[in-house]
């Protein structure tokens, strides 16, 4: 199946400007073009955009995403470096999760404290 840029933007949750930006900086290969010269995205393109969105959501810097994307485009022989990028990023994500869990514990403590105070005053 193929999708126009507006459809790809809607399905990916990215803006049209972001899709063009990702293409310009080399995160995505230029998509195929239809007979009118308009971008035509495939299901594979959308799956790649979904993966990029996950990387971005987890805080991977654009420069690392670009390195990963360039290695992916080069294909065979780059798997070890791509794996290492993901392993390093997973470590960063796990550290952020632990930090957020600590913050959540503080929030829960405060919420419970106020709950106890409100219950005692009722």
TrEMBL record:
The entry's keywords: DNA-binding
Domain HTH merR-type: 1-71
GO molecular-function terms, A-Z: DNA binding; DNA-binding transcription factor activity
Keyword Membrane in annotation: no
InterPro entries membership: DNA-bd_dom_put_sf, MerR-type_HTH_dom, MerR_fam
Gene3D superfamilies: 1.10.1660.10
One Pfam family per UniProt: MerR_1
Protein name (Swiss-Prot/TrEMBL): DNA-binding transcriptional regulator, MerR family
Organism this protein belongs to: Kibdelosporangium aridum
């Amino acid at each position: 199946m193929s999708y126009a840029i507006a459809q790809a933007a809607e399905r990916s949750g990215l803006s049209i400007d972001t899709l063009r930006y990702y293409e310009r900086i080399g995160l995505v290969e230029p998509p195929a073009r239809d007979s009118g010269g308009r971008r035509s995205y495939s299901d594979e393109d959308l799956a790649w955009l979904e993966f990029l969105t996950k990387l971005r959501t987890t805080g991977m810097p654009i420069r690392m995403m670009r390195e990963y994307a360039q290695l992916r485009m080069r294909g065979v022989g780059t798997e070890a470096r791509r794996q290492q990028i993901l392993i390093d990023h997973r470590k960063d994500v796990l550290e952020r999760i632990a930090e957020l869990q600590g913050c959540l514990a503080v929030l829960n403590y405060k919420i419970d404290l106020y709950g106890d105070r409100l219950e005692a005053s009722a």
